[in-house]
Amino acid sequence: MIVILKQNPDKAQLDSLLEWLKAQNIEVHPTVGSHQTILGLIGDTSRVDVDLISALDIVDNVKRVQEPYKNANRKFHPDDTVVRVGDVEIGGGSLTLIAGPCSVESEEQIIGIAKAVKASGAQVLRGGAFKPRTSPYSFQGMQIDGIRLLLKAKEATGLPICTEIMDASQLPLFDDVDILQVGARNMQNFSLLKSLGKTRKPVLLKRGMACSYQDLLMSAEYILAGGNPNVILCERGIRTFETYTRKTLYLACIPSLKALSHLPVIIDPSHATGKSQLVPSMACAAAAAGADGLIIEVHNDPPHAKCDGPQSITPEAFDKLNRKLTAIRNAIRED
Amino acid sequence: MSFTEGKIPVAVQGTRGAYSQLAAEKMFPDGSFLYFKNFGAVISAVDQKLCRFGVLPLENNTYGSVRAVYRLLQTREVSIAYAMRLKIDHVLLAKEGTALQDIRRVISHEQALGQCETFLHSLGDKVSIDACLNTAVAARMTAESDDPALAAVSSPECAEIYGLKVLKRHIADNNSNFTRFICISGKEESGIPGKSEKPNRLSLILTIPHRPGMLSGILDLFAEKNINLLKIESVPIPGKDFEFMFFIDIEETENPETTRKILTELEEICPVVRCLGSYYEEY
User: Fold this and answer.
1) Do A186 and A250 belong together in one domain?
2) Does the beta-carbon distance from A17 to B50 stay under 8 Å?
3) Same domain, A157 and A238
4) In this predicted structure, what is the pLDDT of residue B182?
5) A contact test, residue of B34, B49, B52 with most A CBs within 10 A
6) What is the pLDDT of residue B197?
7) What's the confidence (pLDDT) of residue B64?
8) pLDDT under 70 in chain B at which residues?
9) What's the pLDDT score for residue B139?
10) Hey, which end of chain B has fewer CB within 10 Å, N or C?
11) A13: closest chain B residue by CA
């Protein structure tokens, strides 16, 4: 249920309402927007008297929210959420570029790529340390050493780092990591999501390849319900009958998720297509569709990459792409 | 029960500056007031313990009963804990820069409009008179409106609250203009905090069988026991063929036994006997 308050509601009256709701075990999430203040009510709201709340002089309107996701719902939070990572802002049409190799392979490799993508306009460095591979015999990532090398690259370039966490037990290793990525395969690892909800670290939540928007938003809800508001949604392609591309990149998710939710939406054209030659086109399409950011795999030597070489673009290609993205962003900017 | 900084939460219809608030402030100098858009919500707020007490206007000595409140008393479980009479002094408010002759529309609660009928009539045919939810809501609407020809009949307090100018003071037809307000509470309350006077009034709701002499027989019961009737009002029962509910207020007796006895006797005759409360009314 959401309660939309009139502008500048009287504090004493609002406090009385909040105390009363609390006494009924209703959790209240206030959002002070630019135009209005909204109270998001979570809990057993079936017995809450809508007529009584509507009749309060400080209340403008009361609506029941049918969707099971509440905190992630745009009805609860009409303004876009902007997730801050150091000086970088993700959300509200930011078109933040997150770039780097699929996996961290060596100090030289990660620092070299970090410098190159930074020079081309990337604002966050990505790199896998713990790799969830389909096969247990595949390269599993450099693990804790990979994180150490990412931190060295962060020190060398000043770029915040984004890397995947696979299990809640790894959290202490991620203390200095700026954005915790939850991979598509872990999107419904609810115990991991609950643990991330207890932190305040930005979480990049990838959509599972066979999960609906509602599934994705319910996973985001797990993190938000724990008190962590810093969730970034990421579309990385879904599984369809088409096998030419690795997955099917579903760009309609950008306007759809933005209508349903206030959370930033970023696109991963690398995993979605699996083909480096398709990445620039789909990145441009995502930018044109209003994505808040892109996460792109960039490798200095794609043919020899230890993981996902075929979908990685070179630093030169990334540089060229970034110039196109800037032009598209300027073309669709509304202000 | 919700308490803001230890203050007693009190439900009031209207908004800041409403006569109900002025009455509520006299009853609860330390109250924390919650304003509601309608009278029914004031009762719901007390029922559902959003507020410990609620204040409702019941009748005015010029314009009579507040029908909307009587209708609610017919159907809702209500317990009266206290009552008071408030002197009502209406003023006509408009925006700064508006003169009396510029006014083309006057808004207020229908009771207030009714109490100022002579004055409003004197404004002439070009002025439309429209009822709204509450006298203070009328002042707020006037302040927020773009129409400089709009005026409100409100309490003098509203002038300061909403930044309006008083165009004319003392506009009620009768300068001895009083409204009775009741304070309702949950059944567990007796009286209101800070007031220790003994009850002087008892309010009853009855339905009386439609037979010759029944009403006079009931009134005789009070007379026989030397009980003074303070009020008797008949209110039609919605949907019935001109059947009525009787609201009867009596002077509370010294002896609680007498009251109990009369209630028992009434229950033998009347299909419905409801006691709204034995309470003190402040004059």
Assistant:
1) yes
2) yes
3) yes
4) 96
5) B34
6) 87
7) 87
8) 1-5
9) 96
10) C
11) B34
Nearest C-alpha of chain B: how many angstroms from A72?
Answer: 29
Cβ–Cβ contact A190 with B under 8 A: no
Q: Which residues pair with A234 in a beta bridge?
A: A206, A266
A197 in the same domain as A59:
no
Q: Is residue B232 helix, strand or coil? A: strand
Rounded to whole angstroms, how far apart are CA atoms A236 and A242? 15
Among B32, B33, B37, the residue with its CB nearest the CB of A55 is B37
- Secondary structure of A219-272 as H, E, C letters: HHHHHHHCCCCCEEEEECCECCCCCCCCCECCCCHHHHHHHHECCCEEECHHHH
Contacts of A55 in chain B (CB under 8 A): 36-38, 40-41, 44
Query: Amino acid letter at B118?
Result: T
Contact A273, A249 (CB under 8 A): yes
- Is the Cβ pair A16, B40 closer than 8 Å? no
Phi-psi region of A75 (alpha: psi -120 to 50; beta: other; left: phi over 0): alpha
Per 3-state DSSP, chain A is made up of helix, strand and coil in percentages (nearest 5) of 40, 20, 40
- Of B101, B143, B142, B140, give the one whose Cα is nearest residue B124: B101
Q: Which residue has the higher pLDDT, A31 or A90?
A: A90
Q: How far apart are CA A74 and CA A31, in angstroms?
A: 11
Output helix, strand, coil percentages for chain B, rounded to the nearest 5.
Answer: 30, 35, 35
Asked if A25 and A104 sit in the same domain, the reply is: no
CA-based nearest distance A33→chain B, Å: 22
B-chain CB neighbours of A19 within 8 Å are 2-4
Mean pLDDT calculated for residue range A96-116: 96
Q: Does A316 touch chain B (CB under 8 A)?
A: no
Closest CA to B164 of B88, B94, B220: B94
- The residue of B1, B2, B51 whose CB has the most chain A CBs within 10 angstroms, and thus the best one to mutate to test that interface, is B2
Distance CA B35, CA A268 (A): 51
pLDDT value at A286 more than 90: yes
- Yes or no, beta carbons of B50 and A15 under 8 Å apart: no
Question: Which structural domains are found in chain B, ordered by start?
Answer: 8-87+177-185 (3.40.190.10), 91-168 (3.40.190.10), 201-282 (3.30.70.260)
A20 touches chain B (CB under 8 A): yes
How far, in Å, are A15, A50, A106 from residue A19 at the CA level?
6, 16, 56
Q: Closest residue of A to B50, CA-based?
A: A20
A289-294 mean pLDDT: 96
Which of A27-41, A138-152, B38-52 is the least confident region?
A27-41
Taking an 8 Å cut-off on Cβ atoms, the answer to whether B2 and A51 are in contact is no
Contact A55 B44 (CB under 8 A): yes
Phi, psi of B170 (to 5 degrees): 45, 60
Q: What average pLDDT does the structure give for chain A?
A: 94
What is the extent of the structural domain holding A323? 83-332
Number of domains in chain A: 2
What's residue B1's pLDDT? 43
Here the ipTM equals 0.84
Q: Is the pLDDT of residue A114 over 90?
A: yes
A19, A20, A57: residue with CB nearest B35: A57
